[in-house]
Amino acid sequence: MPNVPKWVADQMENLLPSKFMNIEVGDISQYSREIKVITFHTDLSKIDYFPGSAINFRVSDTEIRHYTPVDFNKTNGTFDIYFHIHGNGPGSHLADQLTPGDHLKVSVPGGRKIYDPGKHTHFFFGDETSLGFYISLLGEINKNNGKAFGIFELNEPDLPTPYNIRIVPKTPDAALAELDKYINEYREAIFYLTGNVASVQQFRTALKKHDVSSRNIKLQGYWAEGSVGL
Q1: In what order do the strands lie in the sheet with 217-223?
Q2: Among 2, 123, 157, 226, whose Cα sits 20 to 30 Å from the Cα of 105?
Q3: 126 and 91 belong to one structural domain
Q4: 40, 79 contact by CB (below 8 A)
């Protein structure tokens, strides 16, 4: 739901108040040149949440964008959002303009439950738009003593991340070449493919050639070239 008429967005907020939260901007940190992490504050005591869920931000009168909350803490009433600041979309513009103390109305967490707690090993593929999803699920995987690994197409090869990921450039074969190095170790994992739709489809085709079962591949495309940007 990237774009809706203004009157529809207004009606959703006014007629479904239980589906929305009023949040306040807290700490803002520049995780890297293109990734900004913003902490939000609100009363989360009665809010349902599951790892990998999405929160809808109304980034303009008619545009809505989905972001994955990280470190969702009901006790403290805080959660983080990893914003990709690329200068080309309304979500990026909103995140770049926010300052501590600003107030927003956003949806409560929802979306598809695609995390599989029954699996020990989890493999992720994505880009800058996928980092929040990965880190969100990584916390749950660690709680369950699972194993996680990721291949990410990022513009910043020196991204300061402590997480178990391999960073590759955004070239047609870089991610697939990296996959060839790790497929034998992770063949029986659950694969979460997120981010650019074309890259997700290409990676899925490669997994099928490696005889990875379709039931172990979960897809979540976030954006596509030529479509309305994030």
Answers
A1: 165-168, 147-153, 121-127, 190-196, 217-223
A2: 226
A3: no
A4: yes
